Amino acid sequence: MREDRQNNEIREIKITPNYLDHPDGSVLIECGNTKVICTVMIENKVPLFLRGKNKGWLSCEYSMLPGSTPTRKVRDISRGKLDGRSSEISRLIGRSLRACIDLDKIGERTIWIDCDVISADGGTRTTSITGSYIALEIAIKKYLKDKKIEENPLICKVGAISVGKVGGINLVDLDFKEDSNADVDLNVVMNDNFEIIEIQGTGERDTFSIDELNKFLEDAKVGISDIFKYYEIVEDYI
After folding, report:
1. How far is Cα 79 from Cα 192, in angstroms, rounded to an integer?
2. Closest residue by Cα to residue 140 from 41, 30, 46
3. pLDDT tens readout for residues 167-225
């Protein structure tokens, strides 16, 4: 049993919109002690495979700053290659956000999402997805206001949460200590119709049944529903 919150309770979220001056959209999102800066910048060009098709693209880059963990996280540039985990999470965030936008409505533009973890205490990828959606909404509303695009391309909201089983107990929104000791660990991405965009799940130390999977998904739905409540607060700042 947790001491600071209920087993099905998410950590307190703090969202600071327009955290940086230069991006089209930006937020600092804090989920407990996990803190991520999410930015959106829109370029008037697309990858070669989309040129001439009047269609846009969305891509993401994710990284953890050296001081985000108890021991220094070596920068990818020092390794001479992209960290495999960073690459995998970048693709996850990109897929998640492409599910919420009609890229035919933005013209030949590329939406770049950058997620930089400045403090990691579990759930950095799910926090990045949530923060990225909010930053994306800020950027799109600015483009609509400035008449750079004619029609809102956003088709749904997106949120993400981790769920799992630790010591035989189901938990929502795992911090690092819980995640590192999890028997089962899942990351779930949903839209605001609570349709599943992506599930990443594994039996770290144990297997789990289909019935247990369904329970994890129900827990995730409740957690993501709570996350969406924070979006309503942010609307006033966009």
Report:
1. 39
2. 41
3. 999 999 999 999 999 999 999 999 999 999 999 999 988 899 999 999 999 999 999 99
Q: How do residues 151-168 score in pLDDT, each as one tens digit?
A: 999 999 999 999 999 999
Residue 226 to residue 13: CA distance in whole angstroms? 10
CATH of domain 13-237: 3.30.230.70
* Binding-site residue ranges: 85, 123-125
Q: Quick one: tokens of 40?
A: 């959106």
Binding residues for phosphate: 85, 123-125
Q: How many CB atoms are closer than 10 A to CB 168? A: 7
Cα 223 to its chain centre, rounded Å, is 14
The answer to whether 193 and 224 have CB atoms below 8 angstroms apart is no
Domain edges within the chain: 13-237
Are 230 and 27 in contact, with CB atoms under 8 Å apart?
no
